[in-house]
Write a structure and sequence with these properties.
The complex is a heterodimer of chains A (437) and B (453).
Chain A: E1 6-8, E2 11-13, E3 17-19, H1 28-37, E4 41-47, E5 62-66, E6 72-77, H2 86-99, E7 104-109, H3 115-126, E8 132-136, H4 150-153, H5 156-169, E9 174-177, H6 186-195, E10 199-202, E11 206-208, E12 211-213, E13 218-220, E14 230-233, H7 238-250, E15 259-262, H8 268-276, E16 281-284, H9 286-291, H10 295-310, E17 338-342, H11 352-360, E18 368-369, E19 372-373, H12 387-391, E20 398-402, E21 408-409, E22 414-415
Helix pairs in contact in A: 3-5, 5-6, 8-10
Chain B: E1 8-9, H1 15-21, H2 31-39, H3 48-52, H4 59-67, H5 71-81, H6 85-91, H7 98-101, H8 104-108, H9 114-127, E2 142-146, H10 150-161, E3 165-170, H11 178-181, H12 192-201, E4 206-210, H13 220-226, E5 229-232, E6 238-239, E7 252-254, H14 255-264, E8 273-274, E9 276-280, H15 284-295, E10 300-304, H16 316-324, E11 328-330, E12 333-341, E13 344-356, E14 359-370, E15 373-376, E16 380-381, E17 392-393, E18 396-397, E19 410-412, H17 424-445
Parallel strand pairs in B: 2-3, 2-5, 3-4, 5-19, 7-15, 9-10, 9-15, 10-11
Antiparallel strand pairs in B: 1-8, 6-16, 12-13, 13-14, 17-18
Helix pairs in contact in B: 2-4, 2-9, 4-5, 4-9, 5-9, 6-9, 10-17, 14-15, 15-16
Chain lengths: 437, 453
Amino acid sequence: MADLRNNFVGIKSPNPFWLASAPPTDKAYNVERAFKAGWGGVVWKTLGSEGPPVVNVNGPRYGAIWGADRRLLGLNNIELITDRPLQINLQEMKQVKMNWPDRALIASIMVPCVEEEWKAILPLVEETGADGIELNFGCPHGMSERGMGSAVGQVPEYIEMVVRWCKQYSRMPVITKLTPNITDIRNPARAAKRGGTDAVSLINTINSIVSVDLDNFAPVPTVGGKGSHGGYCGPAVKPIALNMVSEIARDPETYGLPISGIGGVTTWRDAAEFLVLGAGNVQVCTAAMTYGFKIVQEMISGLSDWMDEKGHRSLDDITGRAVPNVTDWKYLNLNYVAKAHIDQDACIKCGRCHIACEDTSHQAITSMVNGVRHFEVMEDECVGCNLCVNVCPVENCITMVGLEPGTLDQRTGKIVDPNYANWTTHPNNPMAQVAAE
Amino acid sequence: MHRLGSGIAGGRLAPAEYEQNFSDLHPRFDKHEALVASDRCYFCHDAPCMTACPTEIDIPLFIRQISTANPLGAARTIFSQNILGGMCARVCPTETLCEQACVRNTAEDRPVDIGRLQRYATDIAMEQNRQFFHRAAETGRTIAVVGAGPAGLACAHRLAMNGHSVVVFDAREKAGGLNEYGIATYKAPDNFAQKEVDYLLAIGGIEIRNGMALGRDFSLQDLAADYDAVFIGIGLAGVNGLGIEGEELSGVDDAVDFIAYLRQAQNKADVPIGRRVVVLGGGMTAVDAAVQAKLLGAEEVTICYRRGKEHMNASEYEQDLAASRGVSIRHWLAPKRILGKDGAVAGIELEYTALRDGHLVGTGETGVIAADQIFKAIGQSFKASGLGALSMEKGRIVVDDQCRTSMERVYAGGDCVNRGEDLTVSAVAHGRDAADAIHLAFASAGQPAVAVA
């Protein structure tokens, strides 16, 4: 059995699956249920300053997009940080941590960018016995209008400043949660590192309007006839999150900085992808909000079974394993040539590969051969783009097959060169570097 | 209630049982079911289902319209190819047409529910009486259509769309043809066939004259003289006989008459049925008669077919339906003699058959099945008079691929022609295509002689 125990910046949990700071972790009742279901840790829903709690809208807070069979693909929310009194949250956190000493309990915090505010709340949190804190620099709606959440995360200098305060006034490990609503995720990550953060977590939700009510001409969720942009999450955002995680993992300035991966983790496979791209663990929210806490059982068994099958014994064996293979486009091997291949036994003859290629790509797939409906790749036209693979409804029916070096590429009429060559040295590149003699 | 009384009698069941037995075979999908079913469509390129449909409905498009909450758009897509898409959704043997061609069969052995999705969309449009087509400007041409069945109605509608006037002659009291008189009750309950006729006629420009029979009240020659064109869609009015001893006995009936009578009966309890019923034949009519005999309370219903299961014209689905309703289907049995007692049927003697050198032969071995009612469902045949010298082949009217007959300006389609399968949907395709051909002929004949200077 693979060892799924997780040690993230010194915070130990029996598995790498944490619940992200969000509605599922708003109170002891939910968190207790989550731990019973098997979650390794939780990041408690974001705490604000002492005083009158924030208020939420009393109408709908969520909107969604769906795939086939109404499978939820993306969720959007306009809920704010916890609307319960700070003291209640702190009491419950303390009790839960006592009840579940082996699980990770992290406090998410969002208070104004004022040193005294942070100085005030940190000891209160530390007193609960929480294993660490996560700085919410991510929420893109509501609180950002008040200079918090993503309003901080979008200004690297603020990130660095607040992280520094937290390290100064607390012994707890600091995880800095980043907003994706910026142009280059490396800048806030670098700032967090300069401030002394122990880790970053990402992504928080993406600014979005998830849909529009066409009867009322108003964004969804619609509150009294109006809507506001909200935070987008769920399976649809995973690709954006994976890229941002990998950018930080491979950036020389932040290389080695622990990352808690967040964004659309729904299955063990999603989690494994975050881990190999450099995440030390993952945080989950939408999947739990869609299916309940039980889904962690699939994630645990799936990750463990995959690791067993592949001979990976611990999370350290897999974390970051794909990072060296993430590169810039200009370094991709232009001498690598692949062609699509259709398994005729698996083909159900829907013709989607043909029409996708015919209408929108390279006219490289037949629809009719000798008067019979037949879909086959014409290698002399195929550029190996992989579109047909992606539109085929049958998994593994169409595969990309790399041409062996030395064989003929029928499209170009050239022999496949065994040597690696990229754009930086390509003759068509006016900026090409002259190869060293 | 005398469920087990011998002889032929009505009222074998409690009123509630009749209601249940003759309710909708496949209730309409609700919105959720339709969305789930439509999600399964792959939107195939040059979709095999579409190719398999005699009316070439753009199935992937209408299913996608359903999946995007646009059932009216879906209905428009369907009706633009097949104005009787509502009935076809109910009676088409989809398992041998569109659904057989569905690529989902290859992967999962279960096609997209195309027929039920078609019904979902067409029902919504028809319930709202949403008309998608309007008459073009009057052309001044009038076309006679003989027969108000699927072929004639489809032809009339398309002609009306193109601005022509249409007079439809039909021998029966009601329009609809086999849709009204020939379809099992549970396939089109709630008077659907008449509702469909009304929906179709709403386009205007179509007059239906009922009780007008070709050969009795008018001839083809009359029509050719009085109208700009003629379309013949008279179906198959004849019924094949057995030609065996006892055929004249009371209790030996044509299955098509039974089906029609049952369809028209307001109270199904009034329809008498035997306690032990034998149906002779292997097609859809045999299944429709047998299943409905069972639903009326017959104790034993047996379909006897002279060839094997694989030769039956009734689809596998229909055979399974019959079996699930308690009908026994026996193969390799040919009727030899109907046995009577006091002038009424008492049983039937059948001879076992076999194929020898490709020929069906009797084996000489016989058996008797006790019966108090026998339905003949061994095929319909062309039966008409007043057609003059119209060219015929194997008992059907000869037409070309534009439904033109051997006579100038006379077109024909549906079961009465020597083209296509004897299906509602094929008849609709013929009628529609004939209308287009007629319209085209008018257009090419009516080219203006003088160009605008």
